[in-house]
Design brief:
The chain is mainly alpha-helical. 54% of the residues lie in helices and 0% in strands. The protein has helices at 6-17, 19-23, 39-44, 53-73. Helix 1 packs across helix 4 (53-73). It is globular. The model has no long low-confidence stretch (mean pLDDT 82).
Length: 81
Amino acid sequence: MEDDDPTIRQFHEAAAFLPFPRALEPFWPSTPVPEHFNRHATAHAAANTQYTPVNAVTAVMLAISVLRDIDDMGYPVQLHA
């Protein structure tokens, strides 16, 4: 995807990738479960704190935005079943 306006491209990249650091923060069961979407807490602390409608939407939107950006950039993707 080519944009003439680099500011729009920067916004697009930020929207697609900035949620990653927070979603990938380390989580250990001995610490409080974060209320924001966190991949590790979702996998290892299955409870109402992580399984909320907001976190579900965040996870789906993050996955879709990354897949869309990968598709737009023309990166080869190989899926193994």
